Each structure stands twice: as C-alpha cells, then as structure tokens.
C-alpha cells in the first residue's frame, strides 16, 4: 500500500481537502440544532461526534479515556491528559476513518449520528481560557514597528535576550465568526495637548499563531526547555485586534491595556502537535553578532527541530467588496519561520519565575510579519503607520480598518511527500463603536 493510499479516508470529502484530510484531524467544540456544545474532530467537510463515537463503543483503552475527555463542552480536560493520551487518540482515529477501516460499513450506517455536516454546525471556543499571554516573537514585526518610533534603534536591548510578552485579557477571547465592536477610549490627536474620548480611528489586526497549553506546572516549579514541548496541546490562528491610537497614548510606561483587551479572535480547530510533526524545521539562524540564548532558553534539539514551517495569510473583505460579490483580497503572505523564539522557549521563559501554567491557557506568538510589505501582518506596517494607503481591487483604499471590514486569517502546511493540511479560518468583522 502506498503512502498516498494510507492517507485516504472513506469520508470522501477528506481526500484532497485543503484543510482537513486524514493527516490532520484537529479537535474542536461544536453544536448543532441548538444542542449542547460537545467535542468533535474535523474530517473533510464533516465533524466526527466524539460523544456518539464513545457511546457506540468505537474506542478502548487510553484512546477511550482521551475521546471521553475530548467529547466534553471544552477541551480543558483533554489538554490536561498530555501527549500519551493525545497520541493514543491519533492512532485510533485514522483506524476508524481510513478507507481500510474494519468498521467502515458500520460507521457509514450511523450517518449523521456520527458525522455532522460542518456547514450545519456552530463552532465554539475550544477551551475555557484561564489566562492569555501575548508574546512579541515576530522579529520583523518588532523591527518594522520599532522603526516607526525609533528609526535609529528599532529593537530595544532586551529583545534578543528575552521572549517579550504581556498578560492579555481572557474574557474577551472569542471564536472565529464573532463580530468585533470598534472600541472607545482615550487618544491624543496629533498636535493636541490633552486627550479626547471616542471611537478608535486606527483599528488594526495582528496575524499570530495561537498556542494552547496542555499539562501545566506546579507553582514555583519551572518547566525546563527540554520538557516544554510536552506542555503544548495544540495550535490555532489568532488575531490580536489592536487600537493603535489608544495604544500610542496608553502604552508607556506599562504597555498595552484597553488598546488590546477589547477583542482577540481564534480559529475553532486545535491542530495537534503530532499533525505538525512533518512540518517542523530548524530554528532560523540568528544574525551574526546576536547573543546566544541564556542556558535556560537553549536546547540543541529544540534549535534543530523546534520551529514550524507554516504559511500564513491575511485576507480583507470590505463591505463594498461584499456587496459587489468580490472575493476577499489577500494582503499578507507570511510564515511562522519569522519567529525569533521557538514555542518551547516561550513556555520555558513564561514559567522560569515559578509562574504556573494550566490546561487551556493560551499564548499568542505576536505578529508574524516578513521582511517585505506584502508579508507584513498588520496594517500599521503595511501602511507605514497610515502614511501609505493600501489599494484594494474595489477601488477603495485603507490605512486602518473601517466598519464593515472583515479580516480573514488562514494557514497552510506543505511538504513534498506529505498531505497538505490547514487550520481552517479565523474571521472577524468590524462593527461600529457603541454610543
């Protein structure tokens, strides 16, 4: 049997699916027809109902424990089980869904009891987020933004020693498809001596990788970098919406506050680390003269195998484009290889002071921009702080987001000899501010 045959599923839409072939099998939480949210697995254009699968006796052993935990209305308990249970489930699922499945006829006979059309389901947040930390590991974004404010010294001295991050707001994280209301706040208009209050005029998106935390650590017990990968439950797309005018006024001396806390969007599917294993790569070499990471942040295996090769996209759909039936316009094509620090380094640094991480905690990577304008992950960079308008096929221009604009994030993994997999979409549409 060829490798290609082994990747085929009896769920026909999975074969060649751009996001959810048999090689992916991400987990999410869904509901249908007003029912209770429950865990499922994306396979082609369908969702495998894990509760129905458990009730039908389709799993046993460690895979059954994992499937039961993942069938709940949030994935926190599943995340807490860690890699052994997750791997057991990933062995069992292809055995059920592959075209050579011994239970194929039985499973097909279960119909929509087992497989729900994705188009008829509502997606929910995959987990209850206890804490959310947004990092700043996209070095080109840090350089681009730094140049806007400090042309001669864009990176502060600590950047290449410390994975910079800040504590975000978990209560305003929402799943893809939820609308984002333009925030109100204080801004200091150019030339003014006192701030004014009102809707943000410089609303922006940020293209990020989301990292879901699995088993945590006891308070006071840091996670060693060599063990850090075992504390990662999976990945998603993340849009850290930003009000740049609010941010410019409030961020000194303590950093962003209201300019970030109003909304964060995440894609609904959790792509498990094992699905991304074929797309791991060496961490890009640091520039000559850059310091070697301190000992607690350095692991040779992590440097050789800890980075990810994921293509990232941002698309923009305006109200006018929508009304004219125009397709969303791609405005960014970037990659996770633009991360200056690995995910393991982020986990190790977050916990090195004794901070406890918990199942369902969420990290944002920070904006993952490339070196060119068409690879920038925010409008702040694309438009040089609003100085150079972005032109759209509808004849419109944008410096920052307007009401009715919809931002769509996508991700794709490709490698010769392996099935391409994707993350689904992370969408958010801007609504007018209150009042």
Q: Class of the largest domain, according to the CATH hierarchy?
A: Alpha Beta
Derived structural class: alpha+beta
| Low-pLDDT regions | 1-6
Number of domains: 2
Domain Fumarylacetoacetase-like C-terminal: 140-430
Keywords: Calcium, Hydrolase, Magnesium, Metal-binding, Phenylalanine catabolism, Tyrosine catabolism
Binding site for Ca(2+): 134, 206, 208, 240
Active site: 141
Relevant terms:
435 residues, alpha+beta, SH3 type barrels, Fumarylacetoacetate hydrolase, domain 2, 2 domains, 5-stranded antiparallel beta sheet, 13 helices, 25 strands, 26% strand, disordered N terminus
How are the elements arranged and paired?
Blueprint: H1 3-6, E1 27-32, E2 38-43, E3 46-49, H2 50-55, H3 61-70, H4 76-81, H5 83-97, H6 104-109, E4 115-117, E5 121-124, E6 132-135, H7 139-149, E7 165-167, E8 173-175, E9 180-181, E10 184-187, E11 196-199, E12 203-204, E13 207-213, E14 232-239, E15 242-243, H8 244-250, H9 258-261, E16 264-266, E17 280-281, H10 300-305, E18 307-308, E19 311-317, H11 319-323, E20 329-335, H12 343-351, E21 362-364, H13 379-382, E22 390-391, E23 397-398, E24 406-415, E25 418-431
Parallel strand pairs: 6-21, 8-16, 9-25
Antiparallel strand pairs: 1-2, 1-5, 2-3, 3-4, 6-7, 10-11, 12-15, 13-14, 13-21, 14-16, 17-18, 19-20, 19-24, 22-23, 24-25
Helix pairs in contact: 3-5
Enzyme class: hydrolase
Active site: 141 (proton acceptor)
Binding site for Mg(2+): 240, 260, 264
